[in-house]
């Protein structure tokens, strides 16, 4: 365990942004931090980075408190994207890389590699304000990773990108992980987290509500999804015992059930009624889990 | 290289290369050039300096001495003697053929008197010239009537030997004082403009970094306090660079124009012989004043998150600087006034008012040192306080009034300890 948060609490006045959060983030893995807006993700990141200090608890990286002396080992992509609009891409990256103790020469070399990879080599000497938003975001990503950090913190890295660029960035993130970078990232997009992370934590109003490995979380959640498409009316299934949630669709119904045995009973009750075109028992998605854990309290 | 130097050199180099720096420098240099070349320009615009005056000599004897004397005083004035009638002369003046006509006659006392007629009364200097020449002729004539010798006449005309001497031994002589006044005045203006300009620059700079959200990356690699001081130091050096360019150029321009500028305005302000000590004090007070105001500007800037709000946020600061400047300008005429003495010890006003006193008066050293000490102490206090506000301020993106924001920032940074 490389990055450890123990019992971390942060309050702003009367508002508790993060409440007794304990996390262990293994080395060379990707860790997902999920949560609705205002759940405390950015505050957690800021505390990890040492921009904010925790009121209670400790945060350690390799057993040491994180401060500015460790900045060469840490990369950060803030949620609110920002670069100097009037500076050229190369000047910008070199400046930020130098602040993380990188030689300008090396920074320029790395920059070329990254720009090639993102297919934006022609923007090297352009001012940032002349770039499209998506390209600015790529530059920002480069700024976060150019010094080969050991710990990379990505706050909503894929927001605002088109699917092609999301794939491009995803691949870059996976490569970094394979090269041995420990990555913590936050997202609203459950499918990204599901795809990328081995371990995750869902924050809700500053409280960790679910945490552990993805497989574990899905297994312990227990509930499964059942999708049925049939030619007859399926609405009666909504009140079937063991069904926790139902949604009628154009072609049939989607159910959330408590366990596999419920599915067996439902199958028996529908086969006699007519032709069933589809009957699928599915693992719960992270989205389901998220809505269940976070959304429930919203209602 | 440590992060302080990286931020410092980055700030310095981007500012030096910026359009704003280039434009303000060029404009200032142009102004200096204009000022030093002004006497030449005035001469050029008055190109048709040659003036023609018709002399109507009714005395039949003064025309020759008068023409000779006029030639000696001003070669640009041509005297033409004529006996034409007045109506014709009037027309010539109205047409612009001649610049005027002078009717010379004897008064009842047998001494010369004259009427000078021109189109309008705008050119007073020509009339004065004629009058002073005639005055001399009149004195000579009067002397003759009284049978005075040339020596006696010279005695009569000799100016009184008058000296204004200060009793205090070290008090500045009148000449020194007028030199000092000019230099202090010029330096005050420079300090005023430079401080306002660079303080605004710092605040804008910080607000820009916040509004573009680069700040968040910056403070994750550099501590906010290092960042703030590096930023201030960077802009101070930009200011010094600009001042060196301006002073260097100004010195060169003044030197090369020294002859033309003697007399008039420049004499009163004594630019000819600049006092090195005053310049040094000016530099010292500029740097200290700048540090004081820049520190305030930096943390005020950290409280805004939009560039549009910067001016509003630093308006209290601007007000202080303007007030200091006004006090100093009033004090220039009477540097010993009690209000000058008192305000020169208030740190916000020290850079201008103590500088004024040091430049104009002969202060005991302890007073200067005391005020500098107070100034430095308040810079340190403000820097510590400012660093705290800054630390919290850079993370806030809300918008409310100054005091509320400041309280919030302090709270945030206190929790952050």
What does the oligomeric state look like here?
Answer: heterodimer
- CATH top level of the largest domain in chain A is Alpha Beta
Sum up the overall morphology of chain A in one term.
Answer: globular
Question: Helices and strands of chain A, in N-to-C order?
Answer: EEEHEEEHHHEHEHEEHEEEHEH
Concise account of the structure shown:
Chain A is α/β, with parallel strands linked by helices and 299 residues long. Chain A has helices at residues 41-49, 89-99, 104-117, 133-145, 163-178, 190-196, 214-221, 260-271, 286-298; strands spanning 3-12, 15-25, 30-35, 56-61, 64-65, 74-77, 151-155, 182-187, 199-204, 207-213, 224-230, 243-248, 252-257, 276-282. Chain A has two domains: 3-218, Rossmann fold (3-Layer(aba) Sandwich), CATH 3.40.50; 223-283, Alpha-Beta Plaits, CATH 3.30.70.
Q: What features would you describe in this structure?
A:
The complex is a heterodimer of chains A (299) and B (417). With 299 residues, chain A is α/β, with parallel strands linked by helices. Chain A is 34% helix and 30% strand. Chain A has two domains: 216 residues, Rossmann fold, CATH 3.40.50; 61 residues, Alpha-Beta Plaits (2-Layer Sandwich), CATH 3.30.70. Chain A is built from nine helices and 14 strands. Chain A has a six-stranded mixed β-sheet with strand order 6-7-8-3-9-10, with helices on both faces. A four-stranded antiparallel β-sheet of chain A has the order 2-1-4-5, with helices on one face. Chain A has a four-stranded antiparallel β-sheet with strand order 12-13-11-14, with helices on one face. Chain A is globular. The two termini of chain A are 37 Å apart. The model of chain A has no long low-confidence stretch (mean pLDDT 85). Chain B folds into two domains: 106 residues, D-Maltodextrin-Binding Protein, domain 2 (3-Layer(aba) Sandwich), CATH 3.40.190; 243 residues, no CATH class. Chain B is 70% helix and 6% strand. Chain B has 18 helices and four strands. In chain B, strand 3 and strand 4 form a beta hairpin. Chains A and B meet through helix 2 of A and helix 1, helix 8 and helix 18 of B.
């Amino acid at each position: 365990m490389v990055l450890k948060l123990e019992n971390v609490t942060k309050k702003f006045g009367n508002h508790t942004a993060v409440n007794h959060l304990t996390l262990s983030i293994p080395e060379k893995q990707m860790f997902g931090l999920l949560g609705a807006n205002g759940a405390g993700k950015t505050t957690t990141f800021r505390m990890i980075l040492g921009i904010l200090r925790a009121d209670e608890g400790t945060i350690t990286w390799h057993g040491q408190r994180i401060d500015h002396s460790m900045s060469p080992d840490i990369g950060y992509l803030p949620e609110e994207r920002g670069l100097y609009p009037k500076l050229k891409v190369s000047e910008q990256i070199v400046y930020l890389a130098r602040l993380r103790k990188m030689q300008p020469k090396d920074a320029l070399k790395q920059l070329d590699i990254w720009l090639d990879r993102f297919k934006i080599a022609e923007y090297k000497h352009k001012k940032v304000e002349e770039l499209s938003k998506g390209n600015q975001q790529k530059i920002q990503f480069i700024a976060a990773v150019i010094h080969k950090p050991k710990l990379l913190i990505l706050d909503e890295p894929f927001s605002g990108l088109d699917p092609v660029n999301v794939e491009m960035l995803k691949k870059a993130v996976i490569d970094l992980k394979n090269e041995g970078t420990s990555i913590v990232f936050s997202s609203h997009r459950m499918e990204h987290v599901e795809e990328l992370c081995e371990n995750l934590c869902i924050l809700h109003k500053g409280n960790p509500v679910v945490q552990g490995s993805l497989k574990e979380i899905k297994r312990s959640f227990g509930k499964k999804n059942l999708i049925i498409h049939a030619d007859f009316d399926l609405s009666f299934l909504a009140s079937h015992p063991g069904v926790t949630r139902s949604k009628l669709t154009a072609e049939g119904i989607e159910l959330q059930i408590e366990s596999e045995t419920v599915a067996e009973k439902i199958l028996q009750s529908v086969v006699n009624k007519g032709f069933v075109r589809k009957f699928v028992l599915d693992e719960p998605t992270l989205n389901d889990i998220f809505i269940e854990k976070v959304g429930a309290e919203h209602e | 290289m440590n992060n302080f130097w990286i931020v410092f050199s980055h700030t310095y180099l981007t500012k030096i290369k910026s359009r704003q720096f280039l434009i303000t420098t060029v404009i200032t240099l142009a102004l200096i050039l204009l000022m030093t070349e002004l006497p030449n320009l005035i001469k050029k615009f008055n190109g048709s300096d040659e003036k023609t005056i018709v002399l109507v000599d009714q005395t039949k004897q003064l025309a020759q001495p008068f023409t000779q004397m006029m030639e000696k005083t001003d070669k640009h004035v041509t005297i033409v003697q004529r006996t034409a009638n007045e109506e014709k002369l009037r027309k010539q003046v109205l047409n612009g053929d001649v610049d005027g006509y002078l009717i010379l006659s004897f008064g009842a006392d047998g001494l010369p008197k004259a009427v000078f007629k021109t189109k309008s009364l705008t050119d007073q200097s020509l009339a004065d010239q004629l009058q002073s020449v005639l005055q001399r002729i009149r004195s000579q004539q009067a002397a003759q009537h009284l049978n005075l010798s040339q020596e006696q006449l010279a005695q009569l005309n000799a100016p009184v030997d008058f000296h204004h001497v200060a009793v205090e031994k070290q008090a500045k002589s009148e000449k020194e004082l007028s030199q000092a006044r000019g230099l202090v005045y010029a330096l005050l203006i420079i300090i005023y403009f430079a401080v306002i300009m660079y303080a605004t620059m710092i605040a804008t700079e910080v607000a820009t970094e916040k509004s573009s959200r680069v700040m968040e990356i910056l403070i994750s690699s550099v501590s906010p306090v290092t960042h703030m001081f590096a930023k201030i130091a960077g802009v101070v050096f930009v200011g010094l660079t600009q001042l060196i360019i301006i002073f260097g150029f100004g010195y060169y321009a003044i030197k090369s124009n020294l002859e033309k500028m003697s007399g008039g305005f420049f004499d009163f302000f004594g630019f000819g012989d600049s006092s090195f000590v005053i310049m040094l004090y000016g530099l010292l007070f500029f740097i200290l004043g700048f540090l004081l105001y820049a520190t305030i500007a930096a943390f005020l800037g950290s409280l805004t998150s939009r560039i549009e709000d910067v001016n509003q946020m630093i308006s209290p600061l601007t007000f202080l600087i303007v007030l200091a400047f006004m006090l100093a300008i009033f004090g220039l005429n009477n540097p010993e006034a009690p209000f000058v003495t008192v305000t020169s010890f208030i740190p916000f006003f020290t850079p201008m008012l103590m500088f004024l006193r040091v430049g104009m008066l002969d202060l005991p050293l302890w007073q200067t040192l005391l005020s500098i000490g107070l100034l430095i102490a308040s810079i340190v206090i403000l820097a510590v306080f400012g660093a705290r506000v800054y630390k919290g301020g850079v993370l806030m993106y809300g918008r409310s009034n100054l005091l509320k924001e400041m309280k919030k920032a302090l709270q945030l940074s206190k929790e952050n300890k």
